[in-house]
Write a structure and sequence with these properties.
With 355 residues, the chain is mainly alpha-helical. It is 61% helix and 8% strand.
Length: 355
Amino acid sequence: MRALSSRNTQSNIVLRNEIDKIRLLFRKDRESYLCFYRILGFYPRNIQLYEQALLHKSTSVRSDKGRPLNNERLEFLGDAILDAIVGDIVYKRFEGKREGFLTNTRSKIVQRETLNKLAVEIGLDKLIKYSTRSSSHNSYMYGNAFEAFIGAIYLDQGYERCKQFMEQRIINRYIDLDKISRKEVNFKSKLIEWSQKNKMEVSFELIEQFLDHDSNPVFQTEVRIEGLPAGTGTGYSKKESQQNAAQMAIKKVKEPTFMSTIEEIKIQHSATATEMETEMEIEFATDSETELATGLENEPETELNANPEIEPENVPEKNILVNEISTVQQGTEALETNQSKSPCDDPESPNRDLQ
């Protein structure tokens, strides 16, 4: 029954393609349809979905209702569909493998670096419309467009056609599942590298430690970006829990709303730091002025001629006049004393005998 159902599905796809070819003959924009056909392997029904998937938010295109028209909503949808499809493929390919192995293998396929390369491989990079002023197009734009493209396929053709595209056009051509499953990816290093490039503060904190039902120690780590929780991870070692938390955080930083919140927090931190620096400068200046004023108040006054051995260079004229008057008074007193004495009183006086 399953084989019969598969053959019927394949027949329906072939028939649908033939019908789409006939319709294409009467379209004026057939060149756009042919362009997407070379990528998809089938003709689009609603070509506007694929065109929107290639519109970066920096283009500022608006719909007839005045709403921004870009690929962010399709990217959100495509991200979820891609996880489901790749999880489905990996689950069936690696029978008997544990959940951790399947999760890591899927993560290696849907990570931003891989999706960027896949977008270039199938030629999406040449079709994306974006503003040259956009600063983010060199890092995430291609991978985001790939996810939006998957979202467009899902809305236009359904889950099965979307899965067929991923298996036949992507994984079978460009991805070696056995090789990629053995590849080690250091998500913590990738997150730290991203944080340094974008000047973000990232911290890892062990938030819980407990025992599982077999008494094995289990660790739980939380990643914070600029103090905001970005992901948690659990593992049987601290390293494993950090890797899983970093993996979740890498996925989180792809969300525009989360990054907007992070940017607001950075601005607040910067403003707070500037205010603290200004307050410290004002406080330092005030302390310096206070110390200077206190020093002037406590400085001892210098008295003139405080040291009797040192004569002042500039003696006030009033002091000189007082000294002169004192000298004159002393001379006058001496003269009066001499005049009060008689010459006869002096035994040696020559007039003594005449009296």
